[in-house]
Amino acid sequence: MAHKLTFDQLSTEDAMAIADGLMEAERFEAAAQILRILLREKSPASRTRLNVRAGLASVPNARATLHYDVLKVLEKGVAEVFVGEALATWNKTLPFYDDPRFVELADKHSHLLPLPNWHWNLQTVLWAVRRAKMLEGDLVELGVFKGHTTLFCADYVEFAGWPKRWFLYDTFEGIPDDQLDPGWAQLNTEVYKGAFSFEEVRDRFAAFPNIEVVKGRVPEVLVGSAPERIAFLHVDLNNSAAEIAALDTLYDRVVPGGVIVFDDYGWMAARAQHDAENAWFAARGLQILPLPTGQGFFVKP
């Protein structure tokens, strides 16, 4: 006689083992479905392990199996293992998993970014955004993609109620050919060109009357449209020419104590950006703080 097995009959470890088997077989969607059920119904004692797996399973890209393999190896000997895109931590506190709102919104908007478990990067930007509330000036993002990071932060802090504006600049057509750094042409074509539109991203922020999505090329689009005082600047243009030109245009507008986050600063693919930005700041007697997330962090003195 056939027997229908339900999750009620399984321990968390048994059900997680089934999800692990599906991930090993690269059946990521099925694994993600099981993990979401477990997160709704099972003991919070395993919540970190479930959340990490659910994040990896939700982005079934070419590196998903590698991320999962790293997770399994680390879990053999250490506690509180976290694995995201090119980042693994263990024996460390994971503050975002103690924040139900953070977890909820990170999951809600994760489909907008083809990278798993972006939590540490979001934590960095969210810290800077919350700091900006205490400073004079508006917020600026250069390089928007589908709006993932700003939408997460704006939802989290309920930015619609802030007496500030947030300006989002992008070509919405990929990196201009004459601004491409070496090695970026293929990625520009595959990931950015035709993958999203200005109208799509603009409409995504319809609930925020104080967020303005602006189409144009940096630095030219900044002339006459960027705010005079900036409390937070997020730089994610994926090319050194535009990012240095943006610093030339906007740095003096960043208020003392204002934060600049460079999204790509520490990634190997962005070495041209890293070197150009280091030289720009060194010429002024300043330094960017490199983070293991791949971001660069700077607080204006």
What does this structure look like?
By secondary structure, this protein is an alpha/beta fold. The model has no long low-confidence stretch (mean pLDDT 94). The chain has 11 helices and 9 strands. The protein has helices at 12-24, 28-41, 47-57, 64-75, 100-109, 119-132, 148-157, 185-192, 198-204, 240-250, 271-282; strands at 82-84, 87-89, 138-142, 166-170, 211-215, 230-235, 254-262, 289-290, 296-299. The protein folds into 2 domains: 7-111, no CATH class; 119-299, Vaccinia Virus protein VP39 (Rossmann fold), CATH 3.40.50. The strands form 2 sheets. A 7-stranded mixed sheet has the order 5-4-3-6-7-9-8, sandwiched between helices. The chain has a two-stranded antiparallel ribbon with strand order 1-2. Strand 3, helix 7 (148-157) and strand 4 (166-170) form a beta-alpha-beta unit.
In short:
By secondary structure, the chain is an alpha/beta fold. The chain is built from eleven helices and nine strands.
Helices and strands, with pairings:
Blueprint: H1 12-24, H2 28-41, H3 47-57, H4 64-75, E1 82-84, E2 87-89, H5 100-109, H6 119-132, E3 138-142, H7 148-157, E4 166-170, H8 185-192, H9 198-204, E5 211-215, E6 230-235, H10 240-250, E7 254-262, H11 271-282, E8 289-290, E9 296-299
Helix pairs in contact: 1-2, 2-3, 5-7, 6-7, 10-11
